[in-house]
TrEMBL record:
Gene3D superfamilies: 3.10.20.30, Alpha-helical ferredoxin. Keywords: 2Fe-2S, 3Fe-4S, 4Fe-4S, Iron, Iron-sulfur, Metal-binding, Oxidoreductase, Tricarboxylic acid cycle. Its cofactor is [4Fe-4S] cluster; [3Fe-4S] cluster; [2Fe-2S] cluster. This is succinate dehydrogenase.
Amino acid sequence: MAETAAPVKKIKLVVTRQDEPTSKPYTEEFEIPYRPGMNVISALMEIQRNPVNAKGDHTAPVCWESNCLEEVCGACSMVINGKPRQACAALVDKLEQPIRVEPMRTFPVVRDLVIDRSRMFNALKRVKAWIPIDGTYDLGPGPRMAEQKRQWAYELSKCMTCGVCLEACPNVNEKTDFIGPAAISQVRLFNAHPTGALNADERLEALMEDGGIEGCGNSQNCVRSCPKGIPLTTSIAEMNKQTTKHMFKRWLTV
């Protein structure tokens, strides 16, 4: 008697799609063959290779962004089973099926899972999240940081501008101009740098403007959702203290 072949294990995905920025979102279901060690990105790549939905109809390949596939670049941020996270670190074996994949809604959707994170990048520009050295001449070796300060500053530098903390924050939405926890934490990072401290007052002034640190509602969703474990609430508390000191200092010097 001929042996019956074992059924091929399938993965079920429900993808929220959007054809263009102004069109309405809709869902489309897919079933793809399972392979050990798959993550959500490899599942989307399988759909791209063979864009046929669960009904057997040919469809347009799902659009998404990814780069490093090592949870470093932050490009593949999306909502997976209701939780904002990195798709490259979302292993299929650890996810409940059907796997529901959606774009982050804090940001405008460009198409399918591709979003426009300009809001986050503009917030970083607003707080001058960089060391202002023009590079036109050799400044020699920079000042050294104390080892203890360097260690906690390194933790803040792990931010990959993925936008997950903004997606998780209830105070970041289309009705507010709150800059979000990532930019606030970057102020702490660059103000701690010996050269960056030269522009510390400018960054604190930016946090004191409308949509700055006063927009934080202390929900603490950001620190729980951060894929890099950055102590965002600690940074927000520290910047709250520093902006308060700066405000009193400004009053006394008027």
